[in-house]
Amino acid sequence: MNPRETASATPLVSVCMTTYNHEAYLPRAIESVLAQKTTFGVELVLGEDCSTDATRSICESYAARYPERIRLVTSAENVGWRANYRRTFEACRGKYVAYLDGDDWWSDPRKLQKQADVLEADPECGMCYTAAERFWAAENRTEPDYPAHYTDFDHLSYRLTICNCATLARRGLIARYYAEVRPEEHPEWLTDDAPMWLWFSVRSRIAFLPDTTAVHRRLSDSVSHSGAYQRQIAFSDSILDIDLWFEAHYGTGRNRFRLERRRASVAWWVLSWNGGVREYLARWWRDVKRCPRLLLCPEGPGLLVKKVLFRRHKNNRKNR
């Protein structure tokens, strides 16, 4: 960042960072923003949602130390993740907005410069994203990003390869997304970034840079990566429901059955290891009623057989 950038000047890039109970992770996230080397102004907007740990005091401390770079958005009462996400974005002043949750971090000090150069050179490009590593916190293990990355709607609606912490997008387009899609009317959507990037693939061009610039921390008990199988299924259903909504509103319809099949298969696979046979059958029947073509899919009865055999094997081992 330019050390002469002041709070009164309009930065080229705003970093939208929402945080809640991130005491253990937040300093690393903030420091990775402060470490960015750019030829333009960058502001960090911290959206703190009444954490029950020391997250608020960490935000206040950084905002006091770097008043020319950091602004704090908060309130006296918890507003929830979706409202916090939105109000933090609304406070961003930059031409471009980068998202970074309070438990992730950037690993490349030139991330913003590289992406801004792409967007500045191509007015038709609405968003640029890079590769991002995945850090499994419980195992202290880092994995590289998936090898395939997509920028078109047909591919992204079936497999979203965009990591939120690896993006930089035009603020004006994000504002249009909120006005057109109105995600607040979809409480069943358990994330706001996935539908945003799908919409971007419809309304603008997306660019991908193969550089690895960010690290997405995967916690063992979060909405997207829970150890409880019911929550795993709920999050998967939410993502596929988002994909199906966008396929219905912006797609050609040719991906609908593939998405319905994937939605059901993920749930069947999770239930083939967890829960009872009755729970599996109830979910299978619900999916078949929703999409009768699923009757022809072999994984439904196949995973049921696996489940029954697995339960018998476990019972036999217990009885020995």
What does this structure look like?
With 320 residues, this protein is α/β, with parallel strands linked by helices. The protein has two domains: 13-218, Spore Coat Polysaccharide Biosynthesis Protein SpsA, Chain A (Alpha-Beta Complex); 255-319. 45% of the residues lie in helices and 18% in strands. It is built from eleven helices and nine strands. The chain has helices at residues 26-34, 55-65, 81-90, 111-121, 153-158, 171-181, 193-203, 229-250, 256-273, 277-290, 299-319; strands spanning 13-19, 42-48, 70-73, 96-99, 105-106, 125-136, 141-143, 167-170, 205-218. Strands 1, 2, 3, 4, 5, 6, 7, 8 and 9 form a nine-stranded mixed sheet that branches. The model is unreliable at 1-8 (pLDDT under 50).
Number of domains: 2
Largest sheet: 9 strands, mixed
Structural class of the helix and strand makeup? Answer: alpha/beta
CATH topology of the largest domain: Spore Coat Polysaccharide Biosynthesis Protein SpsA, Chain A
Outline type:
globular
Layout of helices and strands:
Blueprint (H helix, E strand, L loop, with lengths): L12 E7 L6 H9 L7 E7 L6 H11 L4 E4 L7 H10 L5 E4 L5 E2 L4 H11 L3 E12 L4 E3 L9 H6 L8 E4 H11 L11 H11 L1 E14 L10 H22 L5 H18 L3 H14 L8 H21 L1
Parallel strand pairs: 1-2, 1-4, 2-3, 6-9
Antiparallel strand pairs: 4-8, 5-9, 6-7, 6-8
Helix pairs in contact: 6-7, 7-8, 8-9, 9-10, 9-11, 10-11
Q: Briefly, what is this?
A:
The chain has helices at 26-34, 55-65, 81-90, 111-121, 153-158, 171-181, 193-203, 229-250, 256-273, 277-290, 299-319; strands at 13-19, 42-48, 70-73, 96-99, 105-106, 125-136, 141-143, 167-170, 205-218. It has 320 residues and is of the alpha/beta class.
